[in-house]
Amino acid sequence: MSKVLELKNISKVYGDLHALDNVSLSVDKGEWIAIMGPSGSGKSTMMNIIGCMDKPSSGQVIFDGKDISKESRRKLTEFHRDRIGLVFQQFHLINYLNAVENVMVAQYYHSMPDEKEALAALERVGLKERAKHLPSQLSGGEQQRVCIARALINSPELILADEPTGNLDEANENIVLDIFKQLHKEGTSLVVVTHDPEVGEQAQRIVRLDHGKIVSDKKNELFSEKIKRRDTP
Amino acid sequence: MNTKHKMFVWMVMASLLRRRSRMIVALLAVVVGATILSGLEMIYYDVPRQMSAQFRSYGANVILTPSGDGYINRGELEKCVAEFTDEELEGYTPYRYENTQIHNQPQTLAGVDFDSVLKTSPYWHIVGSLPKSSGQALVGAKAAESLGVKEGDSFSAVNTFEVTSDINTADIPSYEMYSDPETGEMYCDHSLDLTVAGILETGGSEEDYIYISLEDAESLTLSDRGCDIVEVSAAAMQERLTEAVERINESSESVSAKLVKRVTASESTVLTKLQSLVFIVTAVVLVLTMICVATTMTAVITERRREIALRKALGALNGSIIAEFMSECLVLGGFGGILGSVLGYYFAQIVSMNVFGSSIAFRPLLIPITIAASVLVTGLACLVPIKSAVDVDPAIVLKGE
Amino acid sequence: MFFRMLRGTFTRQWKKLLMIAVTVALGASIAAAMLNVMLDVGDKINEELKTYGSNITVTAKSQAVIDKLYNVEDDSGETDYIPQDKLGELLTIFWANNITDFAPVNDSTVMLDGSEVTLIGSWFGHRLEFTKKGTTYERDTGVTNLRSWWDIEEGEWLDEQKLDGDAFAMVGSALAKDKGIRAGDTITVEGKKSEEKLTVTGIFESGDDDDSRVYTTLSAQQRLSGENELVKKVEVSAITSPDDELAVKAARNPSLLSGDEYDLWYCTAYVSSICFQIQEAIPEASASAVRQIADSEGKILEKTQLLMTLITFMSLIGATLGISNLVTSGVMERSSELALLKAVGATNGQVTLLVLTEITITSMIGAAAGYFMGCGFAQIIGRSVFSSSIDMNGMVAFIVVVLIIGVTLVGSIPAIRILLRLRPSEVLHGGH
């Protein structure tokens, strides 16, 4: 299976603090990985490096066989814009644009805004009827679904979600996780950073971080069962 | 316009329209700044004109006198006065002086145009009233004292002249004429009865004279020889007056025009000070107001750091974020400038009406200047915080609460 | 805990508070500068208007009046005079400090080069000694500043203190042209009593009758005419307040005023009260306003003050709006933080108190800085426009402080109303 992303011997140092210490990780195409760990374990740093929003102090970040760790900020921005969709814990919608417009902003910066496509993306997360609502008129779950629609709109190779259910209640959490499952089925690669075991256990593979190091990286045995269980009512 | 441009315009508009309360705060700041700018600009440009009119209370600033021994006749006078535009010309008064005998004392009578005299000598203080009909006189306070007359009194002025062939003796009562026993020449003591309509107080040399109308002076002397001196009051700056005076002196041989230096030189000194006062006040207020606008705009932009970070996280390049936010600021600046120009005009108008009682001259050129300044200041005020905001690391801003 | 939270805001939110303080300081400095200039502009413009020359003339009380009162026939034909040694009394009146310049002006007719010419005797940079309450003072005065519009075409102004003796003269341009007189020449003039050789220090152009006259020192003129130690007329230039109703009433007859009105009138620098005081000091003299100058001065002063008042007023409105605007946005910006306080149980009153205390302290710091900045701006204006400093008025500090507190509190009202309506859950969930 080809790799979407490969981190080789990544370290990130802030002064004396080793946020990441010689970490290597690879993500296969279509794979669903959960990155877990307590606060301060280096999850966020790792997420920023994967999301091309930060550069490692040393090591290589290889995307599609290309090392991007030494690229300029501008190149990095272009790179992540084209290949990565971001989902945030705090949703980060632009509050004066409505749902469909928020999705179109991502299209705008990527290539060309297209309202039909944006509506289709909202339909995919079940929000077609709420397309003209402003973020303040949407519930938290709905806002997160808009955020996912926005992450999907440019057909990224990888979706990077940072605590996607952190601000949601259980019902909404399930809706979001269902969308992730759907995406996984369709072959999208997913990296979900979370400290919630419920969410982490949904993934194919669970990587645990502690003190900047990977302490475990194993297949989730429950994964296929869960999928089966949910698929066969 | 492709969809990308449409989206750009829409995002800018949505930000302005949907974030109403915040945008009103920013717009208000810009409008206040632009209003003060355009209002003070208009006042600054109008102060010399308006103040110059006030300075006319000092009276005549140009004097016309005959060049030689002659007099200035009507036609000549009209021609000289035409050098001033109607707008500049506050008024002009011809004076002719006649030596007469009143109560057997020599007295100087001045024939004057009572309709215009208060325009060239607005400082005249009259106890009683200005003569309205023929046979009435305005008597200077000192002359009144020496004659011992007061308002309502009558007296008779006697003009003595030689009767020559060009005088129509038909108008003269025969008892006024007599011949000199030595030379045999005919003389006439022509008299005119006058009533004191008012006493003139000025604190100056005007108090020594008795003023009558030009028509009465003509009937007293039986001659319409023209006048000795013309006082002109023109609302114009010194350079303009000098120019007019030079033109009169060039074009007319019989009239010589002179500036009343006491009035013109002093006026230009004081006016220059006044204008520079308004200028520097305008400058100080403007600088402070612009800094005020800048701090408000900085606050408005700083507030949106998170949004800027999000756009970066969605893959926006620094350039396009700057373009979007700057267009927002420029729309704000332009709109604020337009509103400010209108309000500023009203502001200047209120000041002008209250202070000078006349409306302010509308200067269309100031509108584009105000709008341009408003756009420029708002733009500059936004550029700095936007630039520092796009340099932030989106990861940190988006993570932080 | 309240102070702890307060301290927290000041140490951690200092950037935002600094911005508010800066805006308040700017607004306060506009207010302070404009108010100071406005309150002093009258005096400044008044000084400038002194270029128009004297606004009061003092002449000897007319003999004619006395004749009429007592029915005495007077055939002497003599002119009335003020004794020269009484002139110092002018500087002992209540408003003596408002008298900027004064000079005697004696005219007499002399023969110059075979024709009759008017000769004026006056002071030029004269050092006058006068006694006030037993102390002797010195003061320089003269006609120089009363003829500020003269153009010296040749030579220079006569100056008694620089020159030795008094046999000097200045000649009007028309006369000089007529007689071919140049600066430095010596002219011989013949008066009623004597003949004098005068050295011409300068030729002037005045644009009026003075152009055909000769100006000389008072003592030379007195020798020529025989009017020893006598003065016919004194021109006085005084800084006056514009006339109002009281002044008009008093001008008719001061004795008709009530006691309070009289005191107010006497202690206001109206041209009429200064004239009255001059007559008190020199009983032989009659002082009257030169209406051309006094009236116009009043008008221009009034207009200028009104203009500055309105500009000040409008600038204050601008500054006020600017400040309240920023205060509003400053408070609203912190809505999430304040909502959090409400969420953990703070009452509306507590939140409001916290916000108001912060804002008021910030504003006061800004106002203090702004006041001093504004005084600096006022001085810049004074220096660059009038080349003299602007008088600082203590009232301005008070007005600025009251204004800023008022503006700050009013500016906080909309923000606080929004805060009170805030539901913690909405704010904390709404993202930003």
What is the strand and helix layout of this fold?
The complex is a heterotrimer of chains A (233), B (401) and C (432).
Chain A lengths: L2 E12 L2 E12 L3 E5 L6 H8 L7 E6 L2 E2 L5 H11 E4 L11 H12 L4 H10 L15 H13 L5 E5 L7 H16 L3 E6 L2 H4 L4 E6 L2 E7 L2 H10 L2
Parallel strand pairs in A: 3-8, 3-9, 6-7, 7-8
Antiparallel strand pairs in A: 1-2, 1-4, 4-5, 9-10
Chain B lengths: L2 H16 L1 H36 L6 E5 L7 H8 L7 E14 L2 E8 L1 H7 L4 E4 L7 E5 H7 L6 E9 L14 E3 L6 E16 L8 E4 H8 L7 E6 L3 H14 L3 E5 L1 H42 L2 H9 L4 H39 L9 H25 L3 H6 L2
Parallel strand pairs in B: 3-9, 5-8
Antiparallel strand pairs in B: 1-10, 1-11, 2-3, 2-6, 2-10, 4-8, 5-9, 6-8, 7-8
Chain C lengths: L1 H11 L1 H36 L6 E5 L2 H8 L11 E2 L15 E6 L1 E7 L2 E8 L3 E7 L2 E7 L9 E5 L12 E5 H7 L6 E5 L4 E11 L7 E5 H8 L4 E2 L1 E6 L6 H8 L6 H8 L4 H11 L3 E5 L1 H43 L1 H9 L4 H39 L7 H28 L2 H6 L3
Parallel strand pairs in C: 5-12, 9-11
Antiparallel strand pairs in C: 1-14, 1-15, 2-13, 3-14, 4-5, 4-10, 6-7, 8-11, 9-12, 10-11
Helix pairs in contact in C: 2-9, 2-11, 2-12, 9-12, 11-12
Structure description:
The complex is a heterotrimer of chains A (233), B (401) and C (432). Chain A has 233 residues and is of the alpha/beta class. Chain A is 36% helix and 28% strand. Chain A has 8 helices and 10 strands. Chain A has helices at 43-50, 73-83, 99-110, 115-124, 140-152, 170-185, 197-200, 222-231; strands at residues 3-14, 17-28, 32-36, 58-63, 66-67, 84-87, 158-162, 189-194, 205-210, 213-219. A 6-stranded mixed beta sheet of chain A has the order 6-7-8-3-9-10, with helices on both faces. In chain A, strands 2-1-4-5 form a 4-stranded antiparallel beta sheet, covered by helices on one side. In chain A, helix 3 crosses helix 4 (115-124) and helix 3 (99-110) packs parallel to helix 5. In chain A, 48% of the residues are buried. Mean pLDDT of chain A is 84; it is low at 228-233. Chain B has 2 domains: 3-54 and 269-399, no CATH class; 61-259, no CATH class. In chain B, 54% of the residues lie in helices and 20% in strands. Chain B has helices spanning 3-18, 20-55, 74-81, 114-120, 141-147, 214-221, 238-251, 261-302, 305-313, 318-356, 366-390, 394-399; strands at 62-66, 89-102, 105-112, 125-128, 136-140, 154-162, 177-179, 186-201, 210-213, 229-234, 255-259. In chain B, strands 2-3-9-5-8-6 form a 6-stranded mixed β-barrel. In chain B, strand 2 (89-102) and strand 3 form a beta hairpin. In chain B, helix 2 packs antiparallel against helix 11 (366-390), helix 8 packs parallel to helix 11 (366-390) and helix 10 (318-356) packs antiparallel against helix 11 (366-390). The longest helix of chain B has 42 residues, at 261-302. Chain B is rod-shaped and about 125 Å long. Chain C is of the alpha+beta class and 432 residues long. In chain C, 51% of the residues lie in helices and 20% in strands. Chain C has 13 helices and 15 strands. Chain C has helices spanning 2-12, 14-49, 63-70, 173-179, 218-225, 245-252, 259-266, 271-281, 291-333, 335-343, 348-386, 394-421, 424-429; strands spanning 56-60, 82-83, 99-104, 106-112, 115-122, 126-132, 135-141, 151-155, 168-172, 186-190, 195-205, 213-217, 230-231, 233-238, 285-289. In chain C, a hairpin with a 2-residue loop joins strand 4 and strand 5 (115-122). The longest helix of chain C has 43 residues, at 291-333. Classes of the chains: A alpha/beta (233), B alpha+beta (401), C alpha+beta (432). Chains in contact: A-B, A-C, B-C.
